[in-house]
Amino acid sequence: MNSSGKARDEEEIVKWWEGGEEGEREGGPIGPLPRGEGEDKGGAGGEGERRGRGEGGGPLERLDLMGDRVLAVLTGTQPRVKRGIVKGVKEFLARGKGSMERLDKLEEEYSQRVGGLSPTEKVMELILRYPKTIIALTLVFSIILFAVGAVGTENLKSFAKERKLRLRENIRADFEVYLPQNDPTEKVLEEMREDFSTDLIIIYVETYNRYDPVDVTNVTNVDVLNEMSAIEEALNFNKTDRGAEDGIIFVLSISTIIKYLNSTPETISQAVENELKGGLLERFNPLNEWNYSIPNQTTVDQLFRRIPPSTLNSIVADSNGDGIYDSTLIMIGLSQKADRKAILNKLYSMLKPYEVEMTVDGPEKESMERWKERYERGEVHTVMTPTGPTPMMETISGRTYSEMERVVPLALVFVFIALFAFHRTWKIIAITMVPILTTLLIIFGILGITNWVLTPQVVLIAPVLIALGVAYGIYIANRYAEESQIEDKEERIRRAVKTTGRAIFLSATTTAFGFASLMTVNMVPMRVLGFGLSVGIMVSWAVTMLTVPSLVRALDYQKKVESKQWERLGKMVVRNRRRFLAGAIAVLIFSVVILSTSIVVNMDYMAMSPPDEPVILKMREQSEVFNSGQMNLLLIRCAPPRDTDGDGRDDILTDSMKDLSILDRIDALESRVNGEAGVEG
Fold this sequence. Notes:
Elements: H1 3-17, H2 21-26, H3 45-53, H4 59-115, H5 119-129, H6 131-151, H7 159-162, H8 166-169, H9 184-193, E1 199-206, H10 222-235, E2 248-253, H11 254-276, H12 297-304, H13 309-315, E3 316-317, E4 327-334, H14 340-350, E5 358-359, E6 362-363, H15 365-376, E7 383-387, H16 389-423, H17 427-450, H18 461-482, H19 489-516, H20 524-555, H21 565-575, H22 577-593, H23 605-608, H24 614-626, H25 660-676
């Protein structure tokens, strides 16, 4: 191939590679090339024509021609590709350099802006920079804390169905929790519990005569006594274990007294026999048929007349004055280590057939009709209602939890209604709801983790925190709305937080310190209330500052209603400030001098209890009918009897409980107490 033809071929290949029109028509990367220069000439042109078409010649010539074509392509495109790559890299580096310069500039501006800020302002800049992340982290933290502290890890799986909270287990409503810590009364109570029962369950037993005087059923009726005895025997199935097995130390009722009197002759004979140690009474003792059980009606009537009036008046009563004893009590003393909930659950299950639902106005009509049907069929003969200190404590504990479940949503609903009424926009509800709910989750989680003993007063924590949380959020939201002349939302919320943040913090701090003073009181309920409110207020402030700015900015809160009345009220107060100040001082003096004298310190446990609970209703009825209801205990300490000769019998009884003079003094004390209480005998 001559040099001119080769050059021409290379030129055409480059044109094709660069997308020339002629190359596109031919197609193919090294497709047919234009004919050689000798195509239009004779002679040597024939060879050029054959070589241009790839015809003729040997395999080496054809391979050489193909190599020439490939080389032409490579040498023609390499510079262009190289130039394109270099150009692309330069453009990429230029764009990257511009982006880096812009990032450096933004970083420098942010650093300069943040570098001169206070720690609080730096935190606010962080919140505004990552609003969604901060809100999400706050919510996740509150949920985890509530799950661990209030629900308990052991209850997480069943919480959706049972709603069982570990926090509920810390709720106590017993009398001791209201005693000052390390008080002498508390120490005496602990000493008594080592040997005696201080936890009491009372079963209030009534015959139908209590509700219908036409019926003449007396509590001394054998059927009534047998029903009472069946309950007693099922609960106190081991009477000699001192509560180790059944959790019950003693049972006292008209039924137990009748059974005791019925077994007394046998007991006396056994005591005499033990003293004589000869078994001399076995062959002629006519009383061996007597035992600890309810005898026939005739024997019951005889034994009933032997009961002293002072004892009788404390366990049976005629509530309607028709001369028939229609009410009585079963008193059950629990051991210190007894499982109270298990015993109460067992008791409630046993009393189901005998129960009538009680209301403030008396027995519930339909429930009473169902009981009457069972009574007429002879299935039951009494109405039995559990009451007494221990059921009362359990009822108040459960009611505290249920009231907490009711109060919190109710408080939220009322607050949201008030917010919407004044602001006329749902945005303010969303802005205040998030910090309120988060605060409640956190504080109840903290109370669960710290294992504070919770009393009914803990219900007050939720409404107070809801009110304060709403106030803190509204301060920021309203300030944001007032800065409407600032178009930049970020700068606007920054200004709102800067002008209100310090005031909110000072308000929260002073309020928290005020409630924290309750923690200095030597009573657990006051300490719990002080701890919950003081910590809860600071949590409310922190959550508000973390979430409200981002929510206000995101929702772009604006006031819907502009009231001129507040402005007029403010001007009126300013114009008459001296009069308002004088009036406030006058009210203060009147409160301190006059109203303070009417404050009475009275720890009335019944007044603090929910009045609609059947347990509480029966406690009140017991107080009216039996002139009792609260158990008062006296601890009498005496010298122990002494065995001097080691024969197992006490020889020296002086100043011991077996000393007759000591027993006489105790009897005199009881008579004096009964006289002061107005009890006959």
